[in-house]
Amino acid sequence: MWWHVPSFRRKKSPLGSSLPCWVPRSFCGCLNVQNHRIIGDAMLTIENLNAGYNGRKVLHDINLKVPQGAVIALIGPNGSGKTTLIRAISGILNPESGKVLYNGQDLTKISIQERSKLIAVVPQIRNLPPAFSVYEVVALGRTPYLNWFGITSGPDHEIVNQSMAQVDLLEMADRNIAELSGGEQQRVMLARALAQQTPVLVMDEPTSHLDLQYQVSFLKNVHRLAHPSEQEIQNGFEPRAALVAIHDLNLLANFADQVALMVEGQLVKLGTPAEVLQPEILSGVYHLPLTTLQDPKTGHFAVLPR
What is the pLDDT of residue 151? Predict the structure, then answer.
């Protein structure tokens, strides 16, 4: 596979600069995010989507809307179709029937470059180019915006640096990607997606290789991207839409606006965490007796085996 590398060298940026960094230097111990109302119409719409592999259907008539200003957690047992849905949304897998729409526009009708300006994908399986530095991999997120000569501008450098700062990678910017642990490589993939600056983020198990500190920090980042402060909105920051496939029910319960539950290729339940994370629902889906608890002070949910 050939990789297009943006033709620039990284401008050194002193550590400890004013670049925004949402990763706490000390672990906060909880998400501590506030509930927000969904503020926009459907940005990403999946209509009657059917898809599969080699004639074997995996997805069955999926209908889902991901509004602007919302984080939707996609859950379900292994093999329920979460990854296949994300592959169909990203364009890696062509659906057998149905549509994937961005603001009403059929994404199958536009080029991969134009789609990459609308949707950034963090895949479950990392496919990282060998012998690249961390900075060079993150800079690949700017590829959809480059001209024919692959030349970047000053703002591109700033965006790459900011994206690395958001997942605490500035100190690793010059390291070879092959030297990093699995969790560190996952943070590189997250930074690359942030560098694309797309209105929609689609992620397949983005926290699977992260330790607890970075799981919490990343989910707080995602929540903030969907729910910017009033000051950020006044400064021109547009709320994003995020669809995140995740297995950790306890983490998702405290950052997601809605939860979409998939079973055997079908979307069987969509609602708030309180509506979907019910013991009678989860116990049947995961074939395990489960109970849920709610902290009366914070409102946070916990899903536990009985």
Answer: 62
What is residue 237's predicted lDDT score, i.e. its pLDDT? 83
For 177-223, write each residue's pLDDT tens digit: 999 988 888 889 889 999 999 999 999 998 887 888 888 888 888 89
What is residue 66's predicted lDDT score, i.e. its pLDDT? 96
Which own/partner pairs from 81-85 qualify as long-range (CB within 8 Å, at least 24 positions apart)? 81/262, 81/264, 81/265, 81/266, 82/204, 82/245, 82/262, 83/124, 83/204, 83/245, 84/51, 84/52, 84/53, 84/58, 84/59, 84/265, 85/46, 85/49, 85/51, 85/59, 85/245, 85/262
pTM of the full predicted structure?
A: 0.82
CATH 3.40.50.300 fits 42-305, yes or no: yes
Classify residue 31 by its DSSP letter: -
* Separation of alpha carbons 37 and 232, rounded Å: 17
Is residue 72 within 8 Å of residue 256, measured between CB atoms? yes
Tell how many helices (H) and how many strands (E) occur in the chain.
10, 12
Do 137 and 169 touch, CB atoms closer than 8 A? Answer: no
Query: Distance (Å, rounded) from C-alpha 160 to C-alpha 137?
Result: 10
